[in-house]
Specification:
single chain
Amino acid sequence: MKGAMSRNLYLLAASLLLFSLVSCGMSLIPNTLQPGLPANGSLWKTIGLVLLLTSLLSALAGILIAMFEQVERRTEERMRRELNEGLARLSRNKGRK
């Protein structure tokens, strides 16, 4: 199953982005509606920012992995095609002798 690693990283980035948005939303809720939770709005904003940056890094890693997998796949296809062409030329040259 090719591309599973990048797909997992995309899902991780999406879930971290969702948690980041929830954290930023928590900073907008008044303190009386948050019993037992940290009431400091700057803490929620900091958590949201850290989750957002982690989400962006995860998405970047997914993009880079997908690109390198594509380059590797195309290189293998090109080498296979060149090998087949070389063998075809070799067999044609043997027929001429």
